[in-house]
Amino acid sequence: MSLRQLVEEPVATAGSARLSPTSRLRLTIAARWDLVVLLVVSVFGVAYESYFLFRGWFPWDEGALSESASRVLAGQLPHRDFAEIYTGGLSYLHAFAFLLFGEKLASMRIVLFAFFAVWIPVLYAVGRRFASPAVAGAFVAACIAWSVPNYSASMPSWYNLFFATFALACLLRYFDKRRARWLVAAGLACGLSVIVKSTGIYAVVGLFLVLLFDEQVHAEGKTVERRQSYLAFVLVCAGAAVAFLAVLLHRRLGASEAANFLVPGTCIAAFLIWNEVRVRHVRASARLHSLLGPIGSFVLGLALPLGVFVAPYMVSNSLGSLLDGLITEPSMRLQFAAASPPTLSSIPITILVLIAFVGLGYALSRNKLGERLAGAGLLAIWCVLTGTSYGYQATWAAVRDASIFLVPIGVVLLAAAIRKRGSDPIENVRTFAPLALFAFATLIQFPFSTPIYFCYVVPLVFLAALALTTSGRETGRAALSTTALVGLFLFLAAFGVIRMNPVFFGGRATIGEGAPLGLARSGPLRVSPSDSRLYQRVVARIREAGTSRYIYAGPDAPELYFLADRQNPTRTVFEFFERGPRQDGELLRALDQHAVSVVALNLRPAFSPRLDSRLMGALAARYPHHERIGRFELRWRT
Fold this sequence. Notes:
Layout: H1 3-16, H2 21-52, H3 59-73, H4 89-101, H5 105-128, H6 133-145, H7 156-177, H8 180-196, H9 201-220, H10 228-249, H11 255-278, H12 284-315, H13 319-328, H14 333-336, H15 347-365, H16 369-385, H17 389-420, H18 425-441, H19 451-455, H20 458-470, H21 482-500, H22 508-511, E1 515-516, E2 526-527, H23 529-545, E3 552-554, H24 559-563, H25 581-593, E4 598-602, H26 613-622, E5 625-629, E6 632-636
Parallel strand pairs: 3-4
Antiparallel strand pairs: 1-2, 4-6, 5-6
Helix pairs in contact: 1-2, 2-5, 2-6, 3-4, 4-5, 5-6, 5-7, 6-20, 6-21, 7-8, 7-18, 8-12, 9-11, 9-12, 9-18, 10-11, 11-17, 11-18, 15-16, 15-17, 15-21, 16-21, 17-18, 17-20, 18-20
């Protein structure tokens, strides 16, 4: 349902039902209240993010994004002409941003800000599917506080989150009147997500399983007899989803990886098998035919952006380069750019914290004013305690670890509701959709499970939790009251603003007020004073030491190409993608071929190993003059 319909439909319905003037007035006030809440959270989100939009950076992130966009702007094709580290679609978007706003690092963040501003009302519309305006507003505020303002670089994982939300909104709209265009729109959003970063495929898998469950729900109403052949089809689909997880995770499949990434998707697959086995259905051919239409519409939307993106590779006979860049090179990240999720040792503390959360929610749900005030007071005390190191760590770990339990508990509760046969089938599908989406979208954290990667998916955690706790609200069976949900989500929002943000790289305390990077191609980006001094000096020396349009900067220093306005003589952005004796020889030949007069050697690369002694010796022989500036060693020849 669109935002306009969410607000206006109750009033229109009131007129058709010939309600009394008092009832119409109530509905008009409710519609205006919807708009007021949406306006408040939108203003909060836009204002809050605008404050942090140009603060903080990881130099290699900004460098990789800007270097790829610059090469696209120069007419190069990702993967064929240079080692694009993502799918490539985001490089085209950033190149477009450079055309609109100038070739500056800040231009990429302006595009992110535009998407973020659109994401807020869409997220609110999705939240309104499950809760009242007040709850939906608090939910959106929590999602804002835990997401983009903590790290405002225009990273592809943010776009994966945005497009997953857009796709879910379209899918929920499809469930209203079964119009295929909404499935095409959902597929289109997923396709755009994939061409930004291949991890967008996780949302595709999750939403496909939602459509499979939706078909089961509709087939149940047409019961005739048990048909094992369709059960086999469900087994194949569920088994394929689990196999997809196993293949993806098998190289780093420890206990933490299994709990965080394998178990949620496996629970979704097991739930679909259970649901298929429990009832008798119509013949398999009829069911496959009924599934084919929705899947076909979804795939059509998915194929449109993918086809446009792949076309240049097919025309230039470079499809192999694309496949190599999307399949072969990402495996190198498991070795050089990987971080395991937190161990499961915090689970006992998490269980205690979650019990306290549930207790506070129950207290806030009570009708007695005294119990509500007591619950609100305890929640306020808890918020104060998060100012301590232990309180912060316990709360962060509780939310992080709660995501492990979310899908297993969710499918059990949903199965229990289905067995009672008292729940609305369409409501069950709507509740299942955020669960399935999160179960697979959480893989965005693999293999680099650092805190910021949890922020890329935490709005989907909150959404799935909202769907579960409000399931059955129309019949009075919701787990928590409106007051409880508003209180808990506002607590999470306050924790995100007051406690989380200062410790993240785009937040307040990490860089203080920061200092302007102060370079022609940086725009208003503010970084730490030490980084500002370092890069101003390094870029100035690069320009002084050589007149060639080409330099070499590495390992893992692509930001210097962009900030110094120099070209890269190699096809690499991060050296670990192409490292070895053969590549070292190719590097030396490229330096000679392009008459490179300056090299900037990163002595503390973020991911790649340092250059070996043999290559360092060859560079020293070619570039005898040198100067150490921070972590960089500049070498040049006259």
